Amino acid sequence: MKFMKLGSKPDTFQSDGKNIRYAASELDSDIVVSVGDVKFHLHKFPLLSKSARLQKMVTNSSEGDGDEVHIHDVPGGPTAFEMCVKFCYGMTVTLNAYNVIAARCAAEYLGMDETVEKGNLIYKIDVFLHSTIFRSWKDSIIFLQTTKSRLPLCEEVKLISHCTDAIASKTSIDVHKVDWSYTYNRTKIPEENGNGPNSNGLRSRVVPNDWWVDDLCELEIDLYKRVMVNIKNKGIVSSEVIGESIKAYTLRRFPGFRKGVCQFSDVSRSRSILDTVVCLLPAEKGSVSCSFLLKLLKASISVDSGEKVKAELVKRIGQQLEEASVNALLIRATDGEATMYDVHVFHKILENFVMHNEDLKTQSEDGNEIPGVLSEASKLMVAKLVDGYLTEIAKDRNLPLAIFVGLAEMVTDFPRPSHDSLYRAIDIYLKEHPGISKNDRKRICCLMDCKKLSVDACTHAVQNDRLPSRVVVQVLFFEQVRANASSGSSTPDLPKAIRDLTSASYGSSRSAITNTENSEVTASAEELRALKEELAALRLANGGLNGDTKRHVDKATNGRMKSILSSKKIFTKIWSSKGRRKQGENSGLDSPDSLEEAKYTPSRKGRYSVS
């Protein structure tokens, strides 16, 4: 730590009791200065030669009681006043980063400037600050921390602005020129530790780009904000490093934040910190992770931050939603809400993703090159994310069907190579909401495209008595079409209305045409495992089938499928009204009548619940 010594005379200040201080001298004191509850017995000449305020106070006091003045609001109290007095006497005073701010503010209060005497205390301290303290990284941080209790006066003499500018300048310097000590608690990459492939076994000192982050975490939020604003205004430090600093500061202030569990003992203070953190976030997409943004959103909801703060977080999350995970998006609903999770917040996030995508597409059509345009891969990931989210919220028995359908329809046009996850979400919803009407069952099943179900999902759906019978027949038909296509056989000789289903659309719009008849649909390992577990449970429920019995059951199931598919009469009756519909009104899962209206006993006998 840097320091400066002023004066050369020995320190002769002594105490007489608890609240009396005096300068030992052959001359008797001729003035008493009361600072708070401490009385200083001093001499007028050294004091008045350097302090304009004391000159004025002594002049005024001579008209009253003469030799005693009272000072109750000197910055730094008796300790800071004594440093200034020692300077007046020429005694040795040692200043450092911890006490210099108190001495500087006390000198300002006492008027110890150049108008009274050349080379006065204010001048000497300012030289020390700019030549030593503000050039030292560690001392600058310490100095800024000590300004907290003296903010008004520090602001007035611009000490804080000078210090924050000095700190921001150091953070913006080329890392190869950083030759001072700093605190760094994060894991460095191999090259930064001297263990990289080009280090030849020699440990070299490589300074990371975010070397300054940990030290700034020591600052209070108001001072941290001023430093970060200064850093951002300089425009040299990258948005990723600024984002890392904000993340580190948040984790330091809220120890449980990393795990998503925060206990806010002081809600008002926590809200102030979170609101400030959000306003400091860089505008660039990807400067902080989506996971961090979601944690900020959850915390902001917990402390009841303003709508502006939450809306900003929702917007940012929506712009990089493809990075999120389902668990991170499951935000618990606040007290008084009927649903288990805050589905309205997720709806807003998803809405922002869609709007952001449309805005970028419009700008691209206008000839503007937009960096980071959402790719088809991003849409695919978000569609998968929505399917996973629907699977979780479907377990909530208080979840309205309209919300479930509304979320699913927002990504209807997004690419999905498989609809297994969506089918699973629909199945869970039907299981947890057994009382919904027939029309509602049709409505929710209309979200799914039977042509995009895997073999295991089709097998599960065929035996699922929660699905409308019409859906089951369609699954059987498309499975048979796929089987014939893979074996090189032709599609069964069925009515044209049924064959047209291979190119029919799905979803509430009933207008989009999909060309997936010849595509091979695959499901993720997790989805297949979940479906196979349910199929295994089904077989075990039939009495623990051995190998021969299992083959017999599978053969019987396949036989039922073929018998259903071979019945042209039933298909013709089911879709008889399909040809009468207006062109473009076809739907893969929605039709005017239900299968129950057709007398078809075999399909019902062979279906039962598997969940």
UniProtKB/TrEMBL annotation:
Record's keyword annotation contains Membrane: no
Region of interest (Disordered), ranges: 576-611
SMART domains recorded: BTB (SM00225)
Keyword Cell inner membrane applies: no
Listed Basic residues bias regions: 602-611
PROSITE patterns on file: BTB, NPH3
Signal peptide limits: none
UniProt superkingdom: Eukaryota
Keywords, in A-Z order: Ubl conjugation pathway
Pfam annotation, one family: BTB
Domain BTB intervals: 29-97
UniProt xrefs under InterPro entries: BTB/POZ_dom, NPH3/RPT2-like, NPH3_dom, SKP1/BTB/POZ_sf
Domain NPH3: 210-482
Associated pathway: Protein modification; protein ubiquitination
Family label: Belongs to the NPH3 family.
Name of the protein this chain belongs to: BTB/POZ domain-containing protein NPY2-like
